[in-house]
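User: I'm new to structure prediction. If I give you an amino acid sequence, what do you actually give back? Let's try with this one:
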Amino acid sequence: MIGRILALVIGLFSGLAGAQMPEFAQQYRQRLGGAIDELRRVVVRFDDTAQAHGLTREAALKRLGEDASPVVQGQARATEEVIARLARLEDQKRKFAEEGSFGRLVTFVREADPGLARATYLDYEPAWPATQEGLIMGGAGFATGWGLLIFLSRIARRLNPFRRRQPSLRSA
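Assistant: Good question. You get back a string of structure tokens that encode the predicted 3D arrangement of the chain. For your 172 residues, that looks like this:
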């Protein structure tokens, strides 16, 4: 009896934990939008400065990279990294918009920006998502946790050397 109650509790806990994946991905997508907005501001400011001096983005980056000062060269590399990261994050946002519920989860798992995912984790607020993917992931988590506990308990019972064996009923 206690084993069944424990299995149910573990299953419920696993269900709740499983439902957090879609919620975490949703909070990540919100943070992704904010990061894109901020990076875009930085790139636009750089482009405007380059244009004000009669240069394209590429020409301005090349000139900065060829400067004798290591500080200016470092700024060129940092700006190139910001531009590349903005392109990656915009591509990720586009994929999120094109995908369905579970496709967004797959995209998140495959392509999440490590820095953005870590920041999302540090500010994460657990919630129960009332979406189809949240309910399905919660159910899958429940079934996995409950089933795993039942499976392991049966193995443990079979391996227990002190287990009482039931007499077999053989017909005479």
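You can read the tokens as a compact description of the fold. Here is one thing that stands out. Residues 2-52 form the longest helix (51 residues).
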